[in-house]
Design goal:
The chain has two domains: about 240 residues, Metal-dependent hydrolases (TIM Barrel); about 190 residues, no CATH class. It contains 16 helices and 29 strands. The longest helix has 17 residues. The N and C termini lie far apart (about 65 Å). It is an enzyme of class 3 (hydrolase). GO terms for molecular function: adenine deaminase activity. Pfam families: Adenine_deam_C, Amidohydro_1. Belongs to the metallo-dependent hydrolases superfamily. Adenine deaminase family.
Amino acid sequence: MPADFQLQANVIDLFANTITPATLHVAAGRIQQIAPTGALNPDPALPYALPGFVDAHVHVESSLLVPSEFARLAVVHGTVATVSDPHEIGNVLGVAGVKYMLENGGQVPFKFCFGAPSCVPATPFETAGAEITAADIETLFKEHPEIGYLAEMMNWPGVLHRDADVMEKIRLAQQYGRPVDGHAPGLRGEDARQYAAAGISTDHECFTAEEALDKLAVGMKILVREGSAARNFEALIDLLPEHHEHMMFCSDDKHPDTLVLGHINQLVQRAVARGQDVLQVLRVACRNPVEHYNLPVGLLRAGDPADFIVVDNLTDFSVQQTYLNGELVAEKGQTLIPAVPVAVVNNFHTTPVQPADFQVVAPQAAATVRVIECFDGQLITARHDLPARVESGLVLPDIAQDVLKLTVVNRYRPAAPAVSFIQGFGLKRGALASSVGHDSHNITAVGCDDESLARAVNLVIAAQGGLAVVSPDGEELVLPLPVAGLMSDQEGYHVAEAYAAVDALSKQLGSPLQAPFMTLSFMALLVIPSLKLSDKGLFDGEAFRFVEAVV
C-alpha cells in the first residue's frame, strides 16, 4: 500500500469550478480530506493539483507498445487512464488478444478501460485472423467486469439498416450496462439521428465542426481527436465553450515517438493557449470521460481514489508528479513504473514474396489507373483516374507524378498480393512495409519498384511482424513487432528510438508525410472512404464494392 502523505497545492475542483489553496490528505490510496487554507485566491507559491488526464479513445496497439509499456510513458505526461479499444489485436487473435491486453495492462498501476471489440472482422471484404461474435462479447461482459464498454461500432450501415448481428451486440451492451462507442465518419442529419437512436453514445471521427454539431444535436458525445495520423483539433476545438459538457479529448492512434513527447496534456495546453476557459478544458480532459465510461478514476474529491497530477502552472501544464491510488508513478519527466516481462503471442503464417508477385498487367496499351490519394493527417482518401504508365505490357509506378505501387499481402496464409496505385506518399526511391494494417493487419507496403517492395515485405515476414524501410542502394531498417505483429516486446523508450529511426529513413526516401507508417496503416481501412486496398483487392468505400485497379 502506498505511504500516507499530505500535499499543499492550489486544488482544482471540477465540480464547484474553483481553484483553492488547500492541503490534500492522502491515506490508504484515497483522498481522505481536502482542507482549504482559507485563502480565496490561488497561491502563486504553490503548485496546482488536478485530476489526471484521460485519453477517451485510443488503440494502445498503435503505440507499438504493450499496455504496460504504454502506461510507463503516458504517466509522465499526466495521463492516468485510457479508454482503449483492443480491436487491433482482436482482429489478429480474437478474444485471446483482448485477454492478453487485460492481463498485461493489469500488471502496472494504471487504469486501462478496455472495450469489447464490436467489429471483428471489420468487413467481409478482407482477411482477418479471428472473429469476435455476439456470444463472445457477452462472455467478455460476464467474465470480465473490467471490460467497460462496447468498442467503436464501425459498421454504421449495419446500424442504420438494423442488421440483426449488429443490433444484438448493442443490445448486449445495454443489457450489461455498458456504453456503446461510435465510429461514423461523415454521417450527418437524419442518418446521424438514427445512428444515435440505436444506442450509439460517442463519435471520434468528426472532421468538420458541422458534422460534430449534427451529432451533438442528437445526443452524442464528441471526441476531439489529435493523434499521429488523424488530427481534428483545429476543426473542432472552437465548439468547446458551448459544448464542453459533451466533449472529450482522445488520440485514437499514437506512435511511440510522439508519446515520448506528450499526450493529452498537449491538447490541454493548446486549448488554453487559444483562450479557452481552463476549467472547461480540464472538464473535457479529465471529468467527462470518467463520468461517461464510469471509470474507477478519482476526480480529486474526498473519498475518491488518489488519482491526480501536480503541475507547476496552468499555461504549459508541466507535469511535476503523477499519482495513481496514492502511488507516485511519475516525477519530473521520469516514469517510476518498473518494466514487467512481456509475453509474445502471434498469428503469422505467410511465406516470402518475389518481385514478380507485384507486377500489374495492362489490359490495353492506353490504360487508366484508379489511384488512391492519401492526405497528411486524415484517414479519408480520394480517388483519381489517371493515365497509366505502361511499358512492355506492365503498369509501372510514375515517380514524377507521385504515383507509387501499394500492396496488401495476406499475413495469415500464403496468397497472391493485392496491388494498386497511390498518390501522396512522395517516395522517390525504395519502399516501406508494415504488418500494422488496419483493421485486419495484413502486410501493407508502398514502394517505387517491385524489387524494393519485395525486400520490404520479406523483412516484415522474416521478423514475423514489424515496420521495414528499404532503399535501392541496399540500406534497410526493421523494427520487429513480435507481439501479434503489432507491438514490440521491448522497453518503451527503446521502441520510440527505433521507430524514430525507421520514420527518419522513410522521410529521407522522400516522404513528406508527418507519420508515413501511420498513414500507411490506414490504407487498408475499408470502413473509411473513399478508396482503400485490402488483401482481396481495391475497394470503393462509397459504393461498398471492389473495383479494378487498372481499366
